[in-house]
Amino acid sequence: MPSVNDVLRQLKAKGTAHDLANLKKFGIAAAKPLGVSMKNIQAVARHVGRDHALAEALWKTGHYEARMLASFVDEPSEVTPSQMDRWCRDFDNWGICDTVCFKLFDQTPHAWGRVPKWSRQRGEFQKRAGFALLASLAGHDKAATDAQFIAGLRLIEDAAADDRDLVKKGISWALRRIGTRNKKLRDASLEVAGRLAASEDPSARWIGKDAVRDLTRSR
Q1: What's the chain's Rg over C-alpha atoms?
Q2: Hey, how many other C-beta atoms are within 10 angstroms of the C-beta on 77?
Q3: Is the pLDDT of residue 187 over 80?
Q4: Residues 97, 64: contact at Cβ < 8 Å?
Q5: What CA–CA distance (Å, rounded) separates 87 from 59?
Q6: Any residues with CB less than 8 A from the CB of 25 and at least 6 apart, and which?
Q7: Measuring CA to CA, which residue among 123, 158, 28 is closest to residue 174?
Q8: Of 27, 51, 67, 167, which residue has the fewest beta carbons closer than 10 angstroms?
Q9: For 100-105, what is the mean pLDDT?
Q10: Angle at 16 between CA 75 and CA 46, to 5 degrees
Q11: Beta carbons of 101 and 136 less than 8 angstroms apart
């Protein structure tokens, strides 16, 4: 298995000024960026394979792309709740938040336990992570029950007044993804979305209207 330094050299070799500029273009204020595209990060991941210890070492480097790579390299079965909380505290942009939740955390046995905890966090990206993870579970966890997502809808209503752009977009994402699970959850999601759309709170109203528009269009 290659060392963390070997992998960093591979990433740095694939960095370009164009991909570095794309981070700013997409509103990603990344720490220690190398300018490597997602396509090339995934190519390195395929070459490296799965390795929990390497994923932890990559995360500790602080490089944006190394942390993105860690989400593809880590073994979901070896991820612990404390690791999830530690990585979540490090989230500093929507790109790393969403990718780690979508590609790694939602595959772990601890995912559902993190959703309510993170949905009540104060930090912008930490709170977004709760709803990014809920949205990811709605898309990927085929064994989850309707009751689990109904509980998720209550978290959505509780948080809908948060006016931070990336938080409310994460909440909307979760609401819309839950609504794609089945008819029962679509109806429940539309009911929540309707209440939010009628709210006097601007953020809740935006989330509700966004979800109503999306879920009625996809019928």
Answers
A1: 18
A2: 10
A3: yes
A4: no
A5: 8
A6: none
A7: 158
A8: 27
A9: 98
A10: 25
A11: yes
Place of tokens 């938040």: 97
Structure tokens at 157: 């209503």
Spatial distance between the Cα atoms of 150 and 178, rounded to a whole number of angstroms: 9
The pTM assigned to this predicted structure is 0.96
DSSP string, the chain: ---HHHHHHHHHHT--HHHHHHHHHTT---SS-----HHHHHHHHHHH---HHHHHHHHHT--HHHHHHHHHHS-GGG--HHHHHHHHHH--SHHHHHHHHHHTGGGSTTHHHHHHHHTT-SSHHHHHHHHHHHHHHHHH-TT--HHHHHHHHHHHHHHTT---HHHHHHHHHHHHHHTTS-HHHHHHHHHHHHHHHT-SSHHHHHHHHHHHHHHHHT-
The distance in angstroms from the start CA to the end CA of the chain is 48
Rounded CA gap, 81 and 113, in Å? 8
Per-position b or e across 63-75, b if 16+ CB within 10 A of its CB:
bbbbbbbbbbbbe
Report pLDDT digits (tens) over 44-71.
Answer: 999 999 999 999 999 999 999 999 999 9
User: All domains of the chain, ordered by start, with CATH?
Assistant: 1-74 (no CATH), 84-219 (1.25.10.10)
Both tokens of 59, joined, read 């995360």
Phi, psi dihedrals of residue 125, rounded to the nearest 5°: -80, -25
8 Å CB contact between 214 and 176: yes
